[in-house]
């Protein structure tokens, strides 16, 4: 198989895309070392293609190559870690993090880092892996004012809302771009499960009125403005 194609994709891109392990090993013995980081017309590297299509053996081989750059992004600014986080590929995330070279917080073109993609996808195992790394920016705020926690609250993802505050680095009271704090978003959505989780994990903003309107009707605030036992 020739190393280059007129389209801009190379043989390495093709074997990564289709998960051809034997052909990958053969190519890596023949091509210049720099080609491991070559881009196709969509700026996808072989690693990006392998991650996007879930070819674990290909990912393993590429990441074991000392010349690979695990942080190169596609046309949408998404790194291999962002893609794996979005798709919920926890084993791929774990492998990427194990290299020690992977950037945990690269925002894609939409301003979202890997943790936000994992949060939106309800991928709790990926979230655990990301939060376990001290280099994670757990409260990263996107240009539209979203954080991973705000996003999970807005979408009613109780497993993620339960998980994120367990990390001491995640703020429980962030505000979005409209200055609505996390608790107000939950109230507006009428999501009682999320409301109680926020209280359990340290929501401390004072609530002065006796009742607050929400899409679920009036929500009593007795006991809601203080932490349990407060």
UniProtKB/TrEMBL annotation:
SMART domains, per the entry: ANK (SM00248)
UniProt organism field: Aspergillus arachidicola
Pfam families the UniProt entry points to: Ank_2 (PF12796)
InterPro entries assigned to the protein according to its UniProt record, in alphabetical order: Ankyrin_rpt, Ankyrin_rpt-contain_sf
The keyword Repeat belongs to this UniProt entry's keyword annotation: yes
Lineage: Eukaryota, Fungi, Dikarya, Ascomycota, Pezizomycotina
Keyword terms: ANK repeat, Repeat
ANK repeats: 76-100
Protein name (database record): Ankyrin repeat-containing domain protein
